[in-house]
């Protein structure tokens, strides 16, 4: 995609429902980032905004260009520098400013992204704002940017790490935590600095897992829930005789118990749900439809309510805002908190886990065991040129079964007594995504193979 005054520019392959992602510099660069800054300022009518970025080598230049574009539109910019996504959400919420975060934690080298939010860390995406911003950038890239405002806005640097850490510790309700040894893997991104700094204020022995240089792309541990990604963490927990290990990735958190075994994400989600229901009697938890059954079960057992929604960051957050839910969970290990502006924070989830562990005298494995009720497999991608047709055929096949329920909230979900699966289309690629959960491993395997056989028939 040429970026030097093209005759036309189509950013639709890069802009999805809530952010922009693509390769730098061939698909987008500092000039496009500057136009996004000006367009964001114009559409939100912001007199001030906050911007942050991760530690990929191209991130500082992209963030600076965005800030300059907003400043040329007369907007005052607070630059919080290298940060995690939840630090940016904290700054947007605490300062009541729209925010822009330059990050692409799951992308390969040369890939980067931009996530935008309204003041108070409110999601920007499902309304028309992002489409309007994209249209302005496409037009300005061809016909020239608007003239700068007088006076031009300022760009000032601000460190929010101390305030961010204090907020997280207060929200988790850490009163008198017992001394624990915690191994922390925050990857190669800014979390390798912020996570130890936040935990340092607690009576913990923190063992950081060595990481690469700050400028290395954070793709070596793109998915903290993948077993291969936590191998070094699991080994280090055992070697240190630690109480637990934490793999942190912005809004996501994966946990290793004292035996060096990964805590299943559904069990952790259910444990956090139970704790929040206990702290807030009668409260609501929002979960996407690919989340384990153990989450609504935990809510019900503690007198709370569970609300199911479509898969995706924006859908969970919007449903939380609509229902006043105290907690939101997603299948990919994201945890969203009402008192954190409905935003996700893996580190806040970890602090809640530390507080729950402090409430009990036993090890983490014993704390989690009651919630490890089901077996699931990694999300499976099925390439297809006809996702709608394949889904319709599968629906027709299962509609003939009297012992299952079908719903179409997000793709197709088929639910039986001791298993369920969801098949939904990707929003960016020609494929279907399959999630399966069952009471035991044998049932899980048979249901998964049956669905795949029908899809490939």
From TrEMBL:
Protein name: Putative phosphohexose mutase family protein
Similarity comment: Belongs to the phosphohexose mutase family.
Alpha-D-phosphohexomutase C-terminal domain residues: 408-452
InterPro entries reported in the protein's UniProt record: A-D-PHexomutase_a/b/a-I, A-D-PHexomutase_a/b/a-I/II/III, A-D-PHexomutase_a/b/a-II, A-D-PHexomutase_a/b/a-III, A-D-PHexomutase_C, A-D-PHexomutase_C_sf
Names of required cofactors: Mg(2+)
Record-level GO BP terms: carbohydrate metabolic process
One GO MF term: metal ion binding
Organism placement in taxonomy: Bacteria, Bacillati, Actinomycetota, Actinomycetes, Kitasatosporales
Keyword annotations: Isomerase, Magnesium, Metal-binding, Phosphoprotein
């Amino acid at each position: 995609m040429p970026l030097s005054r093209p005759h036309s520019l189509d950013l639709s392959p890069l802009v999805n429902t809530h952010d922009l992602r693509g390769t730098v510099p061939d698909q987008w660069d500092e000039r496009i980032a500057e136009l996004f800054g000006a367009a964001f300022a114009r559409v939100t009518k912001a007199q001030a905004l906050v911007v942050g970025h991760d530690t990929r080598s191209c991130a500082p230049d992209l963030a600076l260009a965005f800030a300059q574009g907003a400043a040329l539109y007369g907007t005052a910019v607070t630059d919080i520098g290298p940060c995690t996504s939840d630090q940016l959400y904290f700054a947007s919420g605490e300062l009541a400013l729209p925010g822009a975060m330059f990050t692409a934690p799951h992308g390969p080298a040369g890939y980067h992204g931009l996530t935008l939010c309204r003041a108070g860390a409110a999601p920007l995406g499902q309304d028309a704002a992002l489409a309007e911003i994209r249209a302005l950038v496409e037009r300005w890239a061809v016909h020239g940017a608007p003239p700068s405002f007088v006076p031009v806005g300022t760009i000032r640097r601000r460190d929010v790490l101390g305030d961010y850490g204090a907020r997280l510790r207060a929200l988790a309700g850490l009163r008198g935590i017992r001394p624990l040894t915690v191994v922390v893997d925050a990857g190669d991104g800014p979390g390798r600095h912020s996570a130890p700094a936040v935990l340092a204020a607690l009576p913990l022995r923190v063992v950081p897992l060595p990481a690469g240089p700050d400028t290395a792309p954070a793709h070596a541990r793109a998915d903290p829930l993948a077993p291969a990604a936590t191998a070094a963490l699991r080994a280090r927990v055992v070697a240190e005789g630690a109480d637990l290990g934490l793999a942190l990735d912005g809004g996501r958190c994966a946990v290793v118990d004292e035996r060096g075994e990964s805590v299943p994400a559904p069990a952790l989600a259910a444990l956090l749900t139970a704790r929040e229901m206990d702290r807030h009697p009668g409260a609501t938890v929002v979960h996407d439809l690919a989340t384990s059954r153990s989450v609504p079960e935990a809510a019900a057992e503690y007198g709370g309510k569970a609300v199911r929604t479509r898969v995706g960051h924006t859908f969970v957050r919007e449903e939380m805002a609509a229902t006043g839910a105290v907690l939101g969970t997603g299948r990919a290990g994201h945890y969203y908190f009402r008192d954190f502006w409905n935003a996700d924070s893996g580190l806040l989830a970890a602090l809640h886990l530390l507080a729950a562990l402090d409430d009990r005298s036993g090890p983490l494995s014993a704390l989690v065991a009651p919630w490890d009720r089901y077996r699931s497999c990694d999300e499976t991608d099925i390439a297809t040129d006809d996702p709608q047709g394949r889904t319709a055929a599968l629906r027709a096949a299962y509609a003939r079964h009297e012992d299952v329920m079908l719903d179409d909230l997000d793709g197709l979900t088929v639910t039986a007594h001791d298993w369920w699966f969801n098949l939904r289309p990707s929003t960016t690629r020609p494929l279907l995504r399959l999630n399966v959960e069952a009471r035991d491993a044998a049932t899980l395997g048979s249901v998964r193979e049956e669905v795949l056989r029908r899809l490939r028939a």
